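Usage

Read records sequentially. Each one opens with the input sequence:
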Amino acid sequence: MRTLIVSDLHLGSVSGSDLLRRVELREPLLEAVTNVDRVVLLGDVLELRHGPLRDAMAAARPFFEDLGRALGGRELVIVPGNHDHALVDPWLARRGQEAEPPPLAVEQLLEPAETSPALERIAGWIAPAPMRIAYPGLWVRADVYATHGHYLDCHLTVPTLERLSMGAMSRLLGRAPSTFDCAGDYESIVAPVFAWRDAVAREAATGSALNGATTVSAWRALRGSGIGRTRGLGSAISWLRTRALAGAFPVAVAALNRAGIGPLRADLSMSELRRAGLSAMGDVAAHLDLGDAYVVFGHTHRAGPLAGDDQQEWRGRQGARLVNAGSWTYASIFLTRATSESPYWPGVAVLVDEQGPPVLTHLLQDRTRAQIRTEGWA
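and closes with the structure output:
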């Protein structure tokens, strides 16, 4: 079965960075859909941390209706991630209410109606295409496993907000990720964190701390954006604040390590973001006993492996062959180059044929930055 995998659509993003909201940018994806037997949406399909579910659903409906028409009678599989974990949370909550459930396997195949009302509505939008839910991942082929990748935050050494939340929860519950050996172990840590964030966003739009704006500003400062280009008193003050924040950052990371939240590293370079994400995903593959399967994931938005990448970085410690599906969002902080050469350039899909390795395809590579830029973003 020929399968097309796309990840991190973030439909309903308050910033408007979700590119598939725009008709002209979803056309290349819809055209690619006509040449496959199945489509997998690999997590963070909806952006449910920026505000109520109703807002994200309204923003996403035109895309799903177009996708349903393109699919015809071919299958859609949705694999929830961390930003849309609320889509599968009702099923997770029910599975243990009447009797002790079996361990959460690496693949649960579910019908929309048994998973959540929101997914049942989406299934109606894409009809007549059939739709199933897979969580936390899907065996696309006997040697290809696809999962969003949010479990990697339990092992990440980069001090993201998500990683700090996982570290705090792990310490609170006394459950070290190094001891995990099944998907249920990961859910015991990640699900409470996701539930709190989902609850905050349920009734109204969230503030900058949860919608990502504060994180982007902090990362720009810590990576030195704007240093050396000061103009006037206001810019000089901003520069001084940036230097102060950068100087305090390693101290704060060291304190978190002493508190048992780590291990964390005070390195936010692009190379470290790539290395740390791949190492953490390799750890997940090992703990879930995925062997040397191809493991297709998203979450970090960094597509690969690309030409010039160190191929050894893309092998898990037990042999898993990692493939990242990138994203369909415009994130100006990572688009450091003027052209589509950036590894964070949106519009990536992974094609999995009946045999052979998964293949990355760049469906928006012919677009310029001006054509994909979200209004209000640099």
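Summary fields computed downstream for this record:
- The radius of gyration is 20 Å.
- Residues 224-266 form one domain.
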